Protein: Mannose-1-phosphate guanylyltransferase
Amino acid sequence: MRAMILAAGRGERMRPLTDTTPKPLLKAKGRCLIEYHLENLVTAGFTQIIINHAYLGAQIEQALGNGQRYGAQLQYSAEGDQALETGGGIFKALPLLGTAPFLVVNGDIWCDYPLAQLRTHHLSGLAHLVLVDNPDHHSHGDFYLDRHHVYQQGTSCLTFSGIGIYHPDLFNHCQAGRFSLVPLLVKAMHNEQVTGEYYSGKWLDVGTPARLQQLEQLLSNQ
Structure:
């Protein structure tokens, strides 16, 4: 199974840190955020990894190269100056991702989820999402998990972790351009084509300087 790291966001909430550095290259405990993803993916058996980028994307390619020193084969999906959002970014990268289901990880999260178990996951629908407890800054959550299926609404929603498996067919009828992944997932949920699981381990949305500092503290305490 191939994997993709979404790394094209502008990082507006991280400014001024991201004025000259793309968010994936910001550091916590001396290492770039995206390097934690690469290490976790390779350890889990994912070695063919696609990274999309837009703002200051050349810095990402220069920093990571072909991935050899991480034990990975990296390919890049360059989106130019204007990021294509989650859906548009994945859609543009489909020729690199192949025809089989693939794993996608948001570049601006940190999580100790055991990714190896997703490499052998049998996808029964169009998507499989990992959901976590709602953080204080996102208390209403995203989706409802009922046993093994995910729905748009329910009695108690959880937060989408930014870790998911997708089948290329999820993007059927899409056109190139800038669009979100969420409407595609919601449509698939209505057809009961989205499964999910709850993860109770450590997870952090590293979206602001304060939460970057929180990650620094978390890693220092390990």
About this structure: The chain has one domain: 3-220.
